[in-house]
Design a protein that fits this description.
The chain is α+β, with helices and mostly antiparallel strands and about 280 residues long. About 40% of the residues lie in helices and about 10% in strands. About 15% of the residues are buried.
């Protein structure tokens, strides 16, 4: 940030409290002239607060110094203003960096969302630079993807150009292969995996959840995974988190409740029956 604005940051030296004396004194002056003066007032909007602060700030800047001539305003006008540089054309934007490995769905995870990169980078390690508005992915120092940042958790942000071409038969990961792999645990697990991929705009966006489900089979056993998948399908809970919750809470070991069947209504003195409305046997006055 200092480089962006052409400034220099010089920290106070350890064990030299006088290095920060002027800064702390300036903060103390503002607290006394502005914050203390406003502490008993009630405001109903941010604009109203800013207006009150602005008025007191003008008074503070025009107040004469106690030990030297002039005021803060005259010092700024005669000395500091001439030394100021113009602001850069763009504001500084804070960015964070992280390393990530590209998943088989050719997406990388950033703050709970998933951003695509060219599919040829599957399993490669990349660097991700993300700001409040943009997510950039770099591979060996070269930018390979750029996306607007999403704040909806679990969202996939996919550039269609990053998807593998359908005619490439040599692709290692395909929806059919994942389904066949899941079917080793059982028919219901295979159906669940297929349903997850069918629920996504692109099947690849379901790969991460499907692989997570199959990892649950290694942890809890394929028999329990198959039972959990059956329950998830029956209840419409088509997601990795639902299957994980079923296994963690051992709901897969409970019998599935069948939907209640319609039962025939038997004889009852309070029921008139069809003969009443047909006129047969009606003896009422």
């Amino acid at each position: 940030m200092a480089e962006h604005y052409g400034a220099v940051v010089i920290p106070a030296r350890p064990k030299h409290p006088r290095d920060r004396a002027k800064v702390e004194a300036g903060v103390q002056v503002v607290e006394r002239w502005i914050l203390a003066a406003l502490r008993h007032r009630t405001f109903f909007s941010l604009a109203e607060v800013n207006q009150a602060i602005r008025e007191l700030l003008e008074k503070l800047n025009d107040a004469p110094f106690q030990k030297m001539e002039g005021s803060r305003r005259t010092l700024y006008e005669t000395v500091e203003k001439a030394a100021l540089k113009p602001l850069p054309p763009q504001r500084y934007e804070f960015a964070q960096w992280k390393k990530a490995r590209v998943n088989i769905d050719y997406h990388v995870e950033v703050e709970g969302n998933y951003y695509s990169v060219p599919h040829g980078l599957i399993r490669e390690q990349v660097e991700v630079r993300y700001t409040a508005t943009t997510v950039e992915v770099l591979h060996k120092g070269r930018r390979v993807a750029s996306h607007p940042r999403s704040y909806r958790k679990g969202q996939f942000v996919t550039d269609p150009e990053h998807r593998p071409h359908s005619h490439r038969e040599h692709l290692e990961w395909t929806p059919d292969r994942l389904v066949r792999w899941a079917e080793k645990a059982g028919e219901n697990t295979g159906r669940l995996v297929r349903r997850i991929m069918e629920s996504k705009p692109h099947p690849e966006q379901g790969y991460r959840s499907c692989l997570g489900i199959m990892r649950l089979g290694k942890r809890y056993g394929e028999e329990r995974l198959e039972a959990a998948s059956r329950r998830a399908l029956a209840t419409g809970a088509i997601s990795y988190r639902s299957v994980k919750s079923i296994l963690e809470n051992k709901l897969d070991r409970l019998p599935l409740e069948s939907p209640p069947e319609a039962r025939a209504v038997g004889e009852h003195p309070n029921l008139r029956g069809p003969s009443y409305y047909s006129g047969e046997g009606s003896s009422h006055a």
